């Protein structure tokens, strides 16, 4: 180590690093775990979190480090790579370090974005397992979610076919009177399948189901995935499982999974998902993978459970928030930390010269197409024009009272003049700054970065939430729009405002989290507006209700829960060696 990342593909680096990867029993010894706290699953293992938490409950928590980013290009700016690089750099400094990252969806893995396992010498191993289902959590979520839809559609069929007396005698069920035009839930599959966004089900006769319009979303958009990220234990999961709103009846009353008597079976499918999977970086720092919810409609974080374990097992625990500081960090700050009761010590703002140039007016960046030369040649002017986006994101972190560290995720095309300019502005905005070459050099390239983070962790911060839990929904949205996004105000459609007023008037929703829904490609709701847009208003068109996760999701713009597969997807380049069974072509 490090491997030559300019010549080897990520999957090849992973393959080489896997030759010396610790076994589950090596991890038991290395992490000081009891034998019954390790749950072997092939080359990997899960951790029995309840046993670990109970045994370590009196141990002081380690340092809590969050990783976010500036507003990204469509290529992403390397938060997972930066998270792995930070763990490797801290490991080189000899500290006890670990982390927690989200599980990737099969949709992006087989599409354009790739596996989200990091890259170069800063990636998670074993990469194939990470990229292709891991230890089965997403499959369990799909089964549990789709079982709820089976329960609903079967119930609707039987209620149509039987009168009240027959229904009670044959099934023991009471009539729910589901409104077929107000079915909130759909089906899920873990691929980008745009042809399933809008479907008709139940075509045929009376025994073929209930005919109605339905839909599919991608698996990680399921409310069950969001729940996995924020529950504290299995008892919490079981209680929430009965509270999921599946539809509304003809009088407007919610129909829940509890009404369908399916919550217990759903929890049975998900009982094994409660324990994080243990992986490691290419330099063998332990990293848990647990949960993978959307960041633009759900919380976009790995689990509270994984953070609770990590803070007990490690002196430095690294976790990552999805997308940029305006979305992922805001939800880490005001939702995840509120639910967990955990206080972060430092936040890392991942930054690239490439993204700054885009925000400075550079040509459009398109995934799968070579970058224009403006991004690979020195252009200090473009960088300078894009720096306000970085400064805005630094200020978001500082509003939370957290110490920010700007990590420049270095590319070989970055020049000294460009880097010096970014350092000058980051430090002037009140952040520590570090250049990190973890992609090319692993932990050795991240020493300056690791030192900056350790230095920041020594300082006390004044962590505080943006708003009190008592604040009304519309007031919360207005505050996030102004203080986080930089909007002049908020406009509500009449339907959305009426829904918000109804939710504000019902005490049931007082403690629900506010989960903003908008594009990740701009600080605004419009993905074409780069930099720091001025003179705009955030439009809210709807408020989604996730009653199991206890989220209210104000929607700014149209967000699809089912992405589409591109014309040149990654699966075209993935194959298996028939002699060895090894997978090649994963990004």
UniProtKB/TrEMBL annotation:
The keyword Heme does not apply. It comes from the Bacteria. It comes from Desulforhabdus amnigena. Keywords: ATP-binding, Ligase, Nucleotide-binding, One-carbon metabolism. One of its GO terms (biological process) is one-carbon metabolic process. The keyword Ligase applies. GO terms for molecular function: ATP binding; formate-tetrahydrofolate ligase activity. It holds the Pfam family FTHFS. This is Formate--tetrahydrofolate ligase. The gene is fhs.
